[in-house]
Amino acid sequence: MGPAARGALTVSGEPQSWAQWEAAGTSEEQARLTLLERAYDPLTVAHLGRTGVAAGWRCLEVGAGAGSIARWLAGRAGPSGVIATELFPQHLASTAELGVRVLRHDVAVDPPPGGEFDLIHARLVLEHVQARDQALERLASWLAPGGWLVVEDATFVPDLAMAPALRRVEEAFLSVATGRVGSDLRWARTFPLPLERAGLGETSAEVSMPVMRGGAALAESLALAVRLAGPELLAAGAITAAELDEIAATLADPSVVDCSFLIVAAWGRRPQTT
Questions:
Q1: Of 112, 155, 218, 243, which sits 20 to 30 A from 210 (CA to CA)?
Q2: 173-232 residue pLDDT tens
Q3: Three-state SS string across the chain, please?
Q4: Range of the structural domain that residue 195 is part of
Q5: Considering the domain boundaries, does residue 100 fall inside one?
Q6: Could you tell me if residue 64 is inside a domain?
C-alpha cells in the first residue's frame, strides 16, 4: 500500500509490493485498521495471554496497524519493552506517546529492529508478504531462547458465504490480491507447519470463525476494503459496478450473518539453549 502520488497498481505482470497500495497511510486506511482492531482484538488478546507475557518481557509487534495490540502489550510488559513496527507508522502516534518504540520497518528485508525478543506477534501481515515463509523464519530467528512467536492470518472460504454478493467479492479478492501484490489468502491453512519448518517447538494452531454481522465492525472493515479496492476490482474485471453496490448494501444489512471469513492463529516457541 502506498501514497496516492504513486502510480495505480495493475493486475498484470509481476505482483507489486503491498507497500504500493494507494490507500496506505490515508485516514480511510486508518479507519479500516481501527475496525479490524475492534473485530479481532479479543481473539488476539486471548492468544497472547496464553504465552504468559508479563512485566519485563521484550515484545515486538510486527505490522502494528493502528496500535491497539502494541498498547495492550505495553500494559502487560511495560512500554519500554515494546517495539511496534509498520510500513506506515503515522497511524501509531498515540502508541509512541505511551513510550513504545515505533519504527518504520519492512519485515521482509530490514535488519532486526532490536535484540532478541520474548514475544513476537504479527496479525494479518505475513499473508501479504511475497516471501512469507522466509519472513516467518526471520521472525523466529529474532526470538530469545524460550521466546514465543504468535502469527494470525486470514483466509476466505467463499463456498461458505451465505450471500452470493459476499461469495463474489471474496473470490475477487482471492484472485486480485494474488495478482496485484502476491498475497496468499490460503497460506494460513498450512499452520502450524511454517513455524515448525522455522525450527520452533511447542507449536499449535487454532481456527476462529467470527460471525460477520452486517453493519458491525468486521462487515464495516470489509465494506471499506471493497470501496478502497473497487477501482482495481473493476479494472481487473473481477466484479461489476452493480455488484459493488450490492455488496455495500449486503454488508450494511444487520440481517446478514456470515461465517466465511476465518482467522487462523499459530504459535511456537524457540527451544531453550542447552
A1: 243
A2: 887 776 666 788 899 999 999 999 999 999 999 999 889 999 999 999 999 988 888 888
A3: CCCCCCCCCCCCCCCCCHHHCCCCCCHHHHHHHHHHHHHHHHHHHHHHHCCCCCCCCCEEEECCCCCHHHHHHHHHHCHHHEEEEECCHHHHHHHHHCCCEEEECCCCCCCCCCCCEEEEEEECCHHHCCCHHHHHHHHHHCEEEEEEEEEEEEEECHHHCCCHHHHHHHHHHHHHHHHHHCCCCCHHHHCCHHHHHCCCEEEEEEEECCCEECCCHHHHHHHHHHHHHHHHHHHCCCCCHHHHHHHHHHHHCCCCEECCEEEEEEEEECCCCC
A4: 18-155+184-210+261-269
A5: yes
A6: yes
